[in-house]
Amino acid sequence: MVSFSNATAIAAAITQGEVQAQALVEETLHDISERDRALNCFTSTVAERALKRAQAIDQARQAGQPLGPLAGVPFAVKNLFDMAGEVTLAGSKINRDHPPAIQDATAIARLEQAGAILVGALNMDEYAYGFVTVNHHYGATPNPHAPQRVAGGSSGGSAAAVAAQLVPLTLGSDTNGSIRVPAGLCGVYGLKPTYGRLSRAGAALFSTSLDHIGPFARSVRDIALSFDAMQGPDARDPVCTERAPTPTLPQLDQGIDDLKIALLGDHFERGMQPEIASAVDSVATALAIAQKVTLPEAARARAAAYLITASEGSQLHLPRLQTRLMDFDPATRDRFVAGALMPQSWYLHAQRLRRWFRDQVRAVFEQVDILIAPTTPCVAPFLDQETMLIEGQSVLVRPHLGLYTQPLSFIGLPVLSVPVVQAGSLPVGVQIIAAPYQEAKILQVAQWLETQGIVAPTAYGNRAIAD
Description:
alpha+beta; Amidase signature (AS) enzymes; two-stranded antiparallel sheet; globular
């Protein structure tokens, strides 16, 4: 395959005529057909569409027309995004009976307007309810760096496809950590923007008041390019109709001297493996962080997020739970049923706590610009691993992968998981967190860490990784 490490390099080569988009897409599709048999990232490809799009880009370049900042960049999406003419699976068996989508999701359309080329759809946990991408219907997506371990989820196919360099850019969704958890476990960048910042139109939702969409990539600049391309109001998404686009690229190289950065303590410093603590220390040392802050009742916020997720998700799928219960993935079925039986008073109490917690965190951001926290409490667990030790106690693996991500999703904060460089270790992620609509500050910090060599995508095929 043509050796380009990221989307920025590909777009530059296409624009300068160093490579043709059609040739790149052909190689990408061939690579997927050969290597994805073992990786199981893709559930489908759209070869004819992709090649037509590539030919149009080559013709536009030959005619001297502008190509866009993502010219010729192959990308793929979690299979809950609508692709015109394709059935939107959302990781389920039930959705196979649905008619094909009549138009692309807004995020896909905007990336293509920027010159990117859609090549296919990616594996996920059924209906985005999970942290491991072990799917009863479509199989598990293993971690590219350690195939006996999980890729994380629910956007596991999206993170693994970037980690394995099948494509340089993908889209996922994040309810309680479904972008950040797999990004951390696979050693790539994963951005969960502010709630409502990017349109969810044409994306199958799981929990309407918690769902976000966002990109995975192998560089900070790629994250910024794709994020900027997808920004903007969208009448198709009622929570994304007011905020005007705010470009983040110009701020990438401004340094960090003007930012107040603190480490999250209490809930966010307990229960982690040594590799995770080491990664957080590495980032904190590089940023010369001297301040530690607490988000009050973060553990209760996480518990409330569980209740809201279960309630909203089960209500969304209630008709199918009533008529096609046994067609659900066993890993999601019981949790959806439990959510459907939840008393309404629990849900309302969780929403009240949410408002209180939002106000407490808002006060914290009056004192600091950026917060740092681990992404996951552990490196990628084994595919068949059911429990792990946290503070000497045995806990279930799957729900606890969101230990540090859920309190932040709960109030819609923007967060980027960055892959921390640690020789000989499985991939480890650290979260960079800011106040709502301050994605530019997050990317500013991430870019500085990248230039210092503190963060970088984990090298695929790195035989030094211990297991």
